[in-house]
Structure to design on (231 residues):
């Protein structure tokens, strides 16, 4: 359902649509499946998805903002169904975007893949963090420090926290059956962020664009099993 909701958002995103319209479509889709949008009401969050445009990193509140050609927009969706949560995000281009922004999105997605590849039984948690940081910094981008990935299951956010930076071979050892939401947030400029006066929207401190990709993954003996792959 998380994947289908993101696919739906991606199909709707074009110049002229508002972030509110995207959120409403996501909400109606999730509710039509008899499930609940996990973010709605979470610590008072007022919408069903987080939609973060351009210099907004995460936790953007959908509203009357209209998307413009050339922007990048991150959509983050959580679903609660039959006792369990799923969580995934992707950054989507609005029409034609610059080569710079495309590269930012590509590097962020590839850093997520590098992190996911480390989610195998016997590895240690910070092996994921390190793989992400190395990939991002090799491209001269920066990894947001203030926000992290997380365990997920019967709660939306469970232990352990999963930073997107750090030295390898530290933290808890990964074991089969653990479920993690890995989610690098990557800035074109400084890694520093600040929160807007709405108390939710996190933006880059220097106003440059940011991208965000997230998957929910199960650790297995045979490596990572990604639960939120696009169909
Ligand atoms: Mg998420
Ligand atoms: Mg998450």
């Amino acid at each position: 359902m998380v994947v289908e909701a993101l696919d739906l958002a991606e199909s709707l995103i074009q110049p002229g649509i508002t972030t509110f319209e995207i959120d409403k479509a996501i909400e109606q889709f999730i509710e039509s499946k008899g499930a609940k949008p996990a973010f709605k009401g979470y610590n008072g969050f007022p919408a069903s998805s987080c939609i973060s445009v351009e210099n907004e990193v995460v936790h953007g509140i959908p509203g009357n903002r209209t998307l413009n050609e050339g922007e990048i927009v991150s959509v983050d969706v959580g679903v609660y169904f039959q006792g369990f949560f799923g969580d995934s995000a992707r950054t989507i281009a609005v029409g034609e975007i610059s080569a710079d922004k495309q590269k930012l999105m590509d590097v962020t997605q590839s850093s997520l893949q590098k992190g996911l590849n480390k989610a195998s039984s016997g590895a240690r948690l910070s092996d994921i963090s390190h793989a992400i940081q190395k990939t991002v910094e090799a491209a001269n981008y920066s990894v947001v420090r203030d926000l992290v990935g997380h365990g997920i299951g019967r709660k939306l956010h469970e232990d352990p926290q999963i930073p997107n930076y750090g030295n390898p071979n530290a933290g808890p050892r990964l074991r089969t059956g653990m479920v993690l939401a890995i989610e690098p947030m990557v800035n074109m400029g400084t890694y520093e962020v600040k929160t807007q006066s709405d108390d939710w929207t996190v933006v880059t401190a220097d106003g440059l664009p940011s991208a965000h990709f997230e998957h929910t993954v199960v650790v297995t003996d045979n490596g990572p099993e990604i639960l939120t792959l696009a169909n």
Q: What stands out?
A: The first strand starts at residue 36 and ends at 37.
